[in-house]
Amino acid sequence: MTSIVRAARTATSKADFSGIYTAPDPRPYFTALAPLEYQVPAHAVPVVRAEVDAAGRDARARTLLDLCCSYGINAALLRTSIGLPALGARYTAPAVAELSPDALAAADAAFFGAWMNRPDLRVLGLDASAPAVGYAVRAGLLEHGFAEDLETAAPSPELAAALTTVGTVVCTGGVGYVGPRTFTRLLAHLPSDVRLVVFVLRVFAYDEIVEVLEAHDLVTHRLPGTVRQRRFVDAEEQAAAVADVRARGLDPAGKESAGWFHAECHVSRPAP
Q1: How far apart are the first and last CA of the chain?
Q2: Spans of the chain, pLDDT less than 70
Q3: How far is the C-alpha of 226 from the C-alpha of 23, rounded, in Å?
Q4: Which residue, 143, 150, 104, is CA-closest to 127?
Q5: How many CA atoms lie within 13 A of 77 on its CB side?
Q6: Are the CB atoms for 4 and 35 separated by under 8 Å?
Q7: How many angstroms separate the CA atoms of 187 and 32, rounded?
């Protein structure tokens, strides 16, 4: 099994994998996360597709913004018939180990094109990591990518214009890295009838972001149950997560206590 990258801790004692998002291609990302059985993007696929299809058949309804998109993993899963385990196997295989990032991106463009089964979906990506966003664009997963940090600055004119074309926002792991400030800046430009599908680890509260959404007449529903995100790096990370969810009044039994980060899915839609 590929060795796990040991990482520094965030303020919440969650392991910090930020270094894998600044590599020139997705190989370090999957080398670090595949052994931990990272899986939340796969759980998001049916939920996001259902929201997109319910929104209508026009171009904007089928235009998505992937918030904290990294290397375009959500776009790959949403637009093709490839599963997350297959992506992990691809990027950790010896056959691609010697390819340059540019050669891998070119190979990926052909690879994903051959497996495309939802060409009707148009995906825009937003992430603070320029290398990750640039790779996803070169691999043909994102139509446009924006390397911007809305925690620290307002959207560029180019991003602001692109946001007006979006029908659905998806975020499968960004909350904790981004918060109410980012959502406030996005909603200043997103259409009033936008939908959002956001998966949030139970160690993080979502209440302040929900308040931002409510101020824009968006009603948020939490779907029943939880989904696994990934295994813990070590006992220290697990103990911190158990403490965090208990501090939020949640029960870690069968979830964090069983060795997994768990996430809740929040779907926001225009008020009826």
Answers
A1: 50
A2: 1-13
A3: 30
A4: 150
A5: 24
A6: yes
A7: 33
**Residue 166 and residue 145: Cα distance in Å, rounded?**
13
Distance, in Å, from the CA atom of 192 to the CA atom of 264, rounded to the nearest integer, reads 24
Task: Identify the CA nearest to 255 among candidates 225, 221, 223.
Answer: 225
Domain 8-270 listed as CATH 1.10.645.10: no
Contact 256, 239 (CB under 8 A): no
Residue for token pair 């946001």: 163
The per-residue b/e assignment along 111-146, b for 16 or more CB within 10 angstroms, e otherwise, is bbeeeeebeebbbbbbbbbebbbbbbbbbbbbebbb
Q: What is the pLDDT of residues 46-81, one digit of tens each?
A: 999 999 999 888 889 899 999 999 999 999 999 999
Are the beta carbons of 136 and 104 closer than 8 angstroms? no
**pLDDT tens figures, 198-219:** 999 999 999 999 999 999 999 9
For the chain, which residues make up each domain, given as ranges? 8-270
